[in-house]
């Protein structure tokens, strides 16, 4: 076991995510253990607690806790041929800068102590070392749809900035309980992590302006279609990108997303419909200097397609609903 280390971030590592920086310096340490180091405050940046998605600046000092030697950690087995084929089957777009996947419901973006099959692991199917694609944003495990990964370090920096600065237009489709009124509008307010039990660290709750940890969140919505007053198809465009933002906003609005067991409302779930989360990242539009934007769409997962068919939702309603978002 090594001693505590303090490592200065180099100029070449500027704007790199902390978890990627850690993987570069300590490739033998599993991602789940890195997440535990971060969660418990053992990894710090300039003396402060940090998250894996924090972007580093040149000259910052990263505190690294005692690390096991490379031989003391069991190396990950190579990606199986089946997993590599599965990863490639998810591709819906690629160019010199990025690869876009249609992430299935139930597939985590990154691993943990009990999660061994996840997108970050599957990216090995597209290259190793510097050729391995890099995550630039995330989706919840149970949210399906467009997930973009960068093919180079330069494109990772550019794409990450675009996602952070809200220059990427994102459109989600959700099936909500009840029918939001008015049919077109904006949901805004402050959100923060609940600070609840150990097993519920990622739960978000409404907060007041100025409250510690509170972050402003804005979601634009439009009802595309509905089945009586029981269920509706809602098109969503988040202006901000807070954890679980769309799920919290609809639940706080009184119209929780069908299949969401964490953020609920008083409207009962109709019988005969899938209990999987009905939230899908339908489309992203990525701007490019001097060129038209890259527009990427992902087909609905099976459980949402079946629900749309059962409720008779009209796909032609998507266009007017998205236009109403502005």
UniProtKB/TrEMBL annotation:
Isomerase in keyword set: yes
InterPro entries: PsdUridine_synth_cat_dom_sf, PsdUridine_synth_RluA-like_CS, PsdUridine_synth_RsuA/RluA, RluA_PseudoU_synthase, S4_RNA-bd_sf
Any one GO biological process: enzyme-directed rRNA pseudouridine synthesis
Keywords: Isomerase, RNA-binding
Domain Pseudouridine synthase RsuA/RluA-like: 97-251
MF-aspect GO terms: catalytic activity, acting on RNA; pseudouridine synthase activity; RNA binding
Family matches, as Gene3D superfamilies: Pseudouridine synthase, RNA-binding S4 domain
Domain of life: Bacteria
SUPFAM superfamilies named in the record: Alpha-L RNA-binding motif, Pseudouridine synthase
Entry's family note: Belongs to the pseudouridine synthase RluA family.
Official protein name in the record: RluA family pseudouridine synthase
């Amino acid at each position: 076991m090594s001693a505590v280390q303090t490592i200065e971030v180099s100029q070449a590592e500027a704007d790199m995510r902390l978890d990627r920086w850690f993987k570069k310096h300590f490739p033998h340490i599993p991602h789940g253990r890195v997440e535990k180091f971060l969660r418990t405050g053992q990894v710090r940046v300039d003396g402060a607690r940090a998250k894996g998605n924090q972007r580093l600046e040149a000259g910052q000092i990263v505190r690294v806790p005692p690390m096991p030697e490379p031989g003391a950690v069991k190396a990950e087995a190579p990606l199986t041929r089946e997993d590599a084929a599965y990863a490639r089957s998810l591709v819906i777009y690629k160019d010199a800068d990025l690869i876009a996947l249609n992430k299935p419901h139930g597939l985590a973006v990154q691993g943990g102590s009990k999660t061994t099959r996840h997108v970050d692991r599957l990216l090995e199917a597209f290259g190793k070392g510097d050729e391995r694609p890099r995550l630039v944003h995330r989706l919840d495990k149970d949210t399906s749809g467009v997930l973009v990964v960068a093919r180079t370090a330069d494109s990772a920096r550019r794409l990450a900035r675009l996602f952070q600065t809200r220059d990427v237009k994102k459109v989600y489709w959700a099936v909500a309980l009840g029918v939001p009124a008015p049919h077109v509008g904006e949901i805004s307010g402050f959100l923060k992590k609940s600070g609840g039990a150990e097993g519920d660290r990622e739960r978000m709750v409404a907060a007041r302006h100025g409250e510690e940890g509170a972050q402003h969140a804005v979601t634009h919505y439009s009802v595309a279609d509905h089945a009586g007053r029981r269920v509706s198809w809602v098109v969503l465009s988040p202006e901000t990108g807070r954890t679980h933002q769309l799920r919290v906003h609809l639940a706080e609005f009184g119209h929780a997303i069908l299949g969401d067991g964490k953020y609920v409302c008083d409207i009962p779930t109709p019988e005969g419909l899938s209990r999987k989360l009905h939230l899908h990242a339908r489309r992203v539009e990525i701007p490019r200097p001097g060129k038209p934007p890259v527009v990427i769409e992902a087909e609905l997962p099976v459980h949402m397609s079946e629900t749309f068919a059962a409720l008779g939702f009209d796909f032609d309603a998507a266009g007017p609903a998205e236009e109403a978002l502005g």
